[in-house]
Design brief:
binds ligand F7E; 311 residues; alpha/beta; seven-stranded mixed β-sheet; two-stranded parallel ribbon
Length: 311
């Protein structure tokens, strides 16, 4: 039996959901899931019957729910759709599992955005939530309904509270990829300026590949639990920009403008996770450093932009 990974086609086309069977997908844009030997299925987190039909057809032993409207600014402009998709969508998957086969193990992609206005630092599994966006609020709902199905029905449901995880496959709307893409384009003469919002925001950025391993480990345990997954090291957006421009021998201050329209109605100013529980129980540690992560993202974009220029 294969696991199913649920992922959105993109963080902005919320109704279209890609589903695939093993091996695990690594991202949703710019490459082909089927080229990895996965079988693609479609369903919709807004359509309960489509999820039931899918589970009946595939009969997975594990379901990883990474599908969501996941871009925080969009959650301010589409708060109701975000609640339906990112919040209630989790209940639809859980109900489908309960109906088709309650023994299916379930992973819910919870988010450090739930900590929002942080109540302590670093944040661990017991830190209270204070979400600062409709996205964070919807994720908090998804988190608690996952806990609730475990406690109410004895189902094997785990929630991974993942801090920001990035890779060269990240969508360009998110700040790491927006920066790596701009640095590559500026270095190769295809762009002159980069507009950014809050440079003071601090995030605990890790490598998505490391974090996917943690998701899988959670579902291989004897008992279902929730885990924070993070590096424990935070950097500001300003440091991210500095590191990325330095990687190609440029000074960020010559190229970056602050654009007030990119500021969020309420931003999360700082996040830093404590993954001690994952380290002790899962034997999990992040392997890639922040500097390495920024370097592989900039290098991948340099290669991609250069290839496009060659035609
Ligand atoms: O913003 C600041 C922005 O959009 C990071 C999602 O995967 O991780 C992600 O959420 C920070 C924020 O990610 C720009 O204000 C400055 O403080 O890359 P981001 P996010 O909002 O932290 C969590 C864990 C998730 O669950 C989410 O789904 O960077 N920032 N200037 C900017 N951000 C963007 N996007 N664009 C800018 O120009």
């Amino acid at each position: 039996m294969a696991p199913i990974w649920l992922s959105s086609c993109s963080s902005k086309t919320t109704r279209c959901t890609a589903w695939c069977a093993a091996p695990a997908p690594r991202a949703s844009s710019g490459w082909s899931i089927s080229a990895l030997g996965c079988i693609l299925h479609q369903a919709d987190l807004l359509d309960q019957l489509s999820i039931v039909t899918l589970l009946n057809a595939v009969r997975p032993h594990e379901v990883y729910n990474l599908a969501a409207q996941s871009f925080v600014p969009t959650s301010f402009s589409q708060p109701l759709l975000t609640a339906e998709f990112t919040g209630l969508g989790v209940t639809r998957v859980l109900e489908a599992i309960r109906l088709v086969d309650p023994k299916i193990r379930f992973y819910q992609a919870s988010s450090s955005e739930m900590f929002g206005r942080v109540q302590e630092e670093p944040q661990n599994e017991s830190t209270p939530f204070w979400p600062r966006s409709p996205y964070g609020v919807a994720k908090a709902y998804g988190h608690w309904i996952t806990v609730n199905y475990r406690e109410s029905y004895g189902m094997f449901t785990c929630s991974g509270i993942l801090f920001n995880h990035e890779s060269p496959l990240r969508g360009k709307e998110f700040v790491t990829r927006k920066v790596s893409d701009a640095v590559a384009r500026i270095k190769l003469g295809q762009q002159s300026r980069l507009q950014l919002g809050n440079l003071d925001a601090q995030r605990d950025w890790g490598f998505a590949g490391d974090y996917v391993e943690a998701m899988w480990l959670m579902l291989q345990q004897d008992a279902p639990e929730d885990y924070v997954i993070a590096t424990g090291i935070k950097h500001s957006v300003r440091e991210l920009v500095d590191t990325a421009f330095r990687h190609v021998g440029l000074d960020w201050q010559d190229y970056v403008d602050v654009d007030q329209s990119l500021m969020r109605p309420a931003d999360v100013s700082t996040l830093c996770g404590d993954a001690s529980k994952a380290r002790m129980r899962l034997g999990w540690t992040p392997k890639m450093s922040f500097a390495e992560l920024v370097a592989i993202m900039v290098d991948a974009d340099l290669e991609r932009v250069a290839r496009a220029m060659r035609g």
